Description:
Layout: E1 7-8, E2 15-20, H1 22-30, H2 34-42, E3 51-57, E4 60-67, H3 80-83, E5 89-92, H4 98-111, E6 127-129, H5 134-151, H6 159-173, E7 176-181, H7 184-187, H8 191-197, E8 205-212, E9 218-229, H9 238-241, H10 249-263, E10 269-279, E11 291-293, E12 299-301, H11 309-321, E13 327-332, H12 336-342, E14 348-351, H13 354-367, E15 372-373, E16 391-392, H14 400-409, E17 418-422, E18 426-427, E19 437-438, H15 443-453
Parallel strand pairs: 1-6, 2-4, 2-5, 5-6, 9-10, 9-13, 12-16, 13-17, 14-15
Antiparallel strand pairs: 3-4, 7-8, 8-10, 11-12, 14-17, 18-19
Helix pairs in contact: 4-5, 5-10, 6-10, 8-11, 11-14, 13-15
Amino acid sequence: xxxxxxxxxxxxxxxxxxxxxxxxxxxxxxxxxxxxxxxxxxxxxxxxxxxxxxxxxxxxxxxxxxxxxxxxxxxxxxxxxxxxxxxxxxxxxxxxxxxxxxxxxxxxxxxxxxxxxxxxxxxxxxxxxxxxxxxxxxxxxxxxxxxxxxxxxxxxxxxxxxxxxxxxxxxxxxxxxxxxxxxxxxxxxxxxxxxxxxxxxxxxxxxxxxxxxxxxxxxxxxxxxxxxxxxxxxxxxxxxxxxxxxxxxxxxxxxxxxxxxxxxxxxxxxxxxxxxxxxxxxxxxxxxxxxxxxxxxxxxxxxxxxxxxxxxxxxxxxxxxxxxxxxxxxxxxxxxxxxxxxxxxxxxxxxxxxxxxxxxxxxxxxxxxxxxxxxxxxxxxxxxxxxxxxxxxxxxxxxxxxxxxxxxxxxxxxxxxxxxxxxxxxxxxxxxxxxxxxxxxxxxxxxxxxxxxxxx
Length: 456
């Protein structure tokens, strides 16, 4: 993982940093010497969000003002590491409450990130003089893991590497890992995972991590790990295939969240399940029109081989549902329809339980890491009708994210609490604190929701 270099304990050359919103800056400026006021006025600086003002001194830079907007939003501070001069160290010079200080530290950690596995960075980020609490470091680590894993090309982030990532976390926290791979998937009754992944030269697999104390509430996390999606025989066009290394973004979220749960010792019995495959084109690729009998016994007609995510997830969800957990959360880069509806920054939340949904919505508001609830409108199940099987894996283009969620819901046992997050896991362009490429979305709010839900 890209190391976290955002923070330092070396105060030798630290410069004062004033973190202020517009109102706070006006008050601060009125208390400064005339020369400082004139400097700020000459630059028409008013501490607008994502702005920086460097203050000159006799030997260069004397201090800086970081303009912020919503103090509850970690991204309000995330422009700092690359807006401030390269390699400089900064010490908070004005008082912030504990929550804002934590958000500053999280934002600095997120804003310092650049993916550097294949090239040397042009310039180092500015550092914050801070010793963040363990939870802050664990949250930042989880988010950066998602970014790293999603950014890594498939040749270096295939099913085996997803397994390695889960194993590393299991070993670090005393968890147990079980892997069912290749034709063993058929022997153990995971036919849809096998069907989607069988054409690749890399064996498909079900990755299962277990951790926690028996008797604690059972939390199940499920991730879609399609390490590359060609679309299968229903081949994607070139522009649609270009970034499909990110189609394991749901698995990245689930694994990173599992790592956070374990690191913070959330009082749960945890089961992490990742269906890891590559949807490749080859002589053994599954075909449109085939009928697959899923683990649950529901027969599915393949209407489109590019609707493969719900196929690998349905066996994984059936598997965890058999264990009757207290809560099931699944994460998936599932539909383009969710992005058309909500754009890249708002993951679509589907849930069969209002309490769970409201807890996540509230957590999203509190952390400024939002989700948007979408309806499980069951009359739209008609769009998944098949003439020869119980269900089709795709169908009409109408309500694409809704029908995908309804498909998944068929594999959740009645009475079980479940939520599905359709997440983009990607930044299309550069924004302050959000470099282009892989992104963790609703991960911080998921963690906040789980803390509320399990009393941590």
